[in-house]
Design goal:
This protein has 106 residues and is an alpha+beta fold. It is built from 3 helices and 4 strands; from the N terminus they run H-H-E-E-E-E-H.
Length: 106
Amino acid sequence: MESNKPGKTCEQRIDKQLEGRLREIRENPEEAQETLLSVEKSLTFKLCLSWGGPADYFELDWCPESKAWTGARYLFQDWFDGASREMSAEVAEEIADLFGIYPEAG
């Protein structure tokens, strides 16, 4: 894996990092399984506000095990372009409450 070199952002490093991870897993899947830190189940709720060009929506992440919101994203996409912003679990809960989304209710 490539270490964090001064001046390189994660965006600049991610393709090489992904390539290295996939190579490691494919070459030695047993070791990859043994060194896996965790497998976490989450449920994502997508709240589409508009579609086409531009489109925007929220993604709210719910953890069934802890019965809590774990985070959210706001995504804005126009033709051949897009951007997203991460949001806290508190904001995810606020948005879920505003739209009446209560996963623990079944």
